[in-house]
Design brief:
Elements: E1 2-7, E2 24-25, E3 35-36, H1 43-47, E4 61-63, H2 66-78, E5 88-91, E6 103-106, E7 112-117, E8 119-121, E9 141-143, E10 148-150, E11 153-155, E12 161-162, E13 165-168, E14 173-185, E15 200-202, E16 206-209, E17 215-226, E18 232-233, E19 239-242, H3 246-263, E20 267-268, H4 269-282, E21 286-288, E22 291-296, E23 299-304, H5 309-313, E24 322-326, E25 329-333, E26 342-346, E27 349-351, E28 366-369, E29 372-374, E30 385-389, E31 391-397, H6 402-405, H7 412-417, E32 434-437, E33 447-449, H8 484-495, E34 500-506, E35 516-524, E36 527-535, E37 538-543, E38 547-554, E39 570-574, E40 586-595, E41 608-612, E42 624-630, H9 632-635, E43 644-651, E44 654-659, E45 669-674, E46 689-690, E47 694-695, E48 707-713, E49 720-726, E50 731-737, E51 740-747, E52 753-756, E53 759-760, E54 766-770
Length: 774
Amino acid sequence: MKRIRVAFAALLSAATAALVAASFTFSWLSGAVTDVEMDGLHGGIISQYFHCGSGTEQDPYVITKPVHLYNLTMLYENLDGFAEQNNHFQLGYNLDGNDGLEFYSYNDEGIYQNGYSTRLNMGYYDAFVPIGSAEKPFRGVFDGSGLILDNLNVSGSGVSDIGVFGFVTGEAKIKNLYIDNLTIDVSGAVANAHTAHSHACVGYIAGHIEDASCVTETYVNNCEITGKSVLTKNDWGYFGKCDNAASIEMFINKANSGQGDDWGGSLDFKAFNQRIYDIFNTLPATFDGSFAYYQTDEMKISFGRGAKAEDYLKQNPDSTRTFYLLQSDGTHYSSTSKSATTISMPGTVMPLLANSDFSANEKNTGYIIADTRYQSSSYEPKSRMVYDSSVRSASYEISHVGNSISDVAITNKEAFNGTGNASGLTYESENVEILTNSAASYSADRYALIKDSYNANHTVLNSYLDVFTKSDNTTPSALNLEKYDTARNSLDNVLEDATLVHGLHFMDKDIAYNNTTSLNTVKLNGAVYTNYAFPKGCIDFNLKEDGKINFFGGSYYNGTSESKADCFFSLSVIERNGNNLTNNSIKKVSYIYKNTAYDKTNPDSQKYIYRYSDNSYSGSQSNVGDLVFDMRYLSETPPVQNAIYYFEIPVNKGEYALHGVSGHDAGGYLMYLDIGASGAGTGEGLVDDFKSVEYRSTPDTASNSILLITYSQGSTNNLEIAVIYDDTRKRYDVICTGDAIEVTVTILSTNYAVYFNSIALPNEIGSYPNTPET
């Protein structure tokens, strides 16, 4: 159960501020302060305040540094005629000469880092003035290029239209923009800056917009509105005021379909284990000694244990150590005797994204498919299939990742038994060290400890870990880990207050084109297939666009007290003939390179070239560019046992499988896996997650938006709105206390129950006004 609590600022007395002067200072351009008069600026002179460009559609003004964004808004407010030109603006430029656009990299102190980034870090600067006002509205084109505006601090001082954009006309276009870590200070807002409305309107994207449909593929993550103001108003979350209210629904629908179709989702294996538990404890299932199974047209689960399966399935994996062997289809024999007693099993094919009734979600991107290995030669006949599984899911004590959370070394035996240095370990988010690769080319010593927002000081001094790189150059940005922040937040939510870690791993068994299973009905990325074949023993998934697979893995495996994880997994490309697999359908990836001939305007052009295990290539060898990922980081033994690792694997669109590593019999556990990003580019994983006004079921995408909360309040600051989400019942409880005039809950999905102050709201899309007692 997750609790989100927001205390809303009171709407108190006004604080006036002078409007921006007719000239302004470009002191950030040089060491000396230079006042620049706006009169007469034009053409080539204006272009000097951007990376390049003339403001046309073919040659937009390009923003590659924080100062360029400031120049944009100041030119809008202070240069006569600039706002009327309907200029085009573009984030990012091809600075490194390779494919894609990027910014110059700056740290939080505003210092250039001698490199490039997909995030424009605005953290050093404050008092950013919204782009456009009622007098000089934004009516041009702003193309975010799929890049991220990060750590932007917007000031509403002296203005009435407050957001990243101030006032936006219906002819404007704002597109393909990601905004992360946005703070809007409304303490200086005024209600009388113009006559368009009698209050200050505050929105994350724009304060006042004529038509929301002019904003497309634009998302906000981690937004907070601070300060006190007079008569501030926020009608829609994204926009403080929208003249065409019907376009709000259009905007939400576009956001839903865009993210849902293109992004998919992620999976933590705590939730996965809980899903197994819920299925066998709430739905009709078959039990037979060591085995149990459940089957429908679009999902099947076959489960094996060394003792009675039903007893184990009654154990809640969130509170009890569990070990699930996910079975293949076929004839199974008892694992505890050589008797000829058999049971016919349907196998395991589970959707990654499931509805509350466990059926495949429309946005599902892939399936977990089990297989069964042949048991040792002591079982006769040797061809019998027993309960030994190649795909396993388990919950173990937190000590199994103890070397990433403890300042003392944890041996395998201590991790397994929870004794010695591993005794009594607890998870503390600020004391977690996570290893990743520090270079594209593999070497056992090329690992780094990630410096993130949880552990900026590298506080864990574990002797097993401190031999690896630990510095300011190991931030997610410096290591080019584009999806790390969202994944790390998700991992923290999973492990917070936990006594167990959860994971899934693969044993030593390659996948093969002639070792398959199938489902009657398969849902993938909104499409439905019948009699669809899968290779056994893998996670089979589809990416609709170029992107990155990212995962957290634990380097633990405990078949015995001294066992060691000796790999993570292999990655193979799947090529189909219709629904079926044929010879050479499966190609194991060894190295991933940039494609020097990549053409992003051609939908069939591939961003990366793979070198396969047979030394063939996925594209022309003459176009092989820089190495970007070496699969040996995943197929070789991790250098530290009982620790946490994070990796991002760049891939082309297409079908893939994660599976066992041949010759390695003790795979590490996947703790969190995101293979549903479906190539959302550099904005992958950014999900609307508002700290005020709008609540979403993170880490779900906007396609699973639940409710929008708007409010009016009295003159005191004691209004509190809490939103409590119960994942088991798929229920939201909105609890409002304090000085409220009106609270309106707009339900955006019919898949969840919503209660307001313990009163059930109608389970249909619509808006419901409620006036709680104070």
